[in-house]
Amino acid sequence: MCGLSKKKMPYLHLIDEAIGLLNTEMRIVKWRIKYPEQFTQHANKLFLSPLHLTDKTSLVNIMEIVSGLFLSKNIIYQNGKPVHLTDLGKGFEWLFNIKLGDYHQKHEDVTKRKSTKLTEFLNGLITLIRKEHENKGYR
User: Fold this and answer.
1) Which residues contact 111 (CB under 8 A, 6 or more apart)?
2) pTM given for the model
3) What was the pLDDT predicted at 85?
């Protein structure tokens, strides 16, 4: 056993496992280089959202919604824990085919706005829902 104690043997097994994983990863990289079309076909099959924002919709408006949902803690993971701002932002990016950028900075940009503009977009949505409510004759 080359003078190694029995305590060190489990570490050798882990090192062997790690080397095996690295060898497998290197084979995959070589295959990706040798057969790139096999790997690009998979990427093309990923589902893309059909939704897009109009040109007049600003990213800060969308971040206003993201921030509100994040702060409400009404969006959760499968394990019941509240969603992280980053994951919620990524969800909206996918949904609307946009790039929000630094979610935490954008969230801060929303929360530090002047009080008259703090929820401007959300207030506009409230107005639209109330108008629809009235137009349909609901009380």
Assistant:
1) 67, 118
2) 0.66
3) 97
Q: Rounded to whole angstroms, how far apart are CA atoms 87 and 103?
A: 9
Rg from Cα positions in the chain = 25
**Domain ranges, ordered by start, for the chain:** 7-44, 59-135
Joined tokens for residue 130? 């109330």
pLDDT by residue (tens digit) across 21-47? 999 999 988 888 888 877 665 555 568
The conformation of residue 46, written as its DSSP 8-state character, comes to: S
Q: Output the pLDDT for position 68.
A: 97
Give the span between the Cα atoms of 118 and 125, in whole angstroms.
14
> Cβ(97)–Cβ(119) under 8 Å?
no
- For 86, residues 6+ apart whose C-beta sits below 8 A from its C-beta are 103, 104
Q: CB of 106 within 8 A of CB of 59?
A: yes
Phi-psi region of 2 (alpha: psi -120 to 50; beta: other; left: phi over 0): left
**Inter-residue contact 96 to 50 (CB < 8 Å):** no
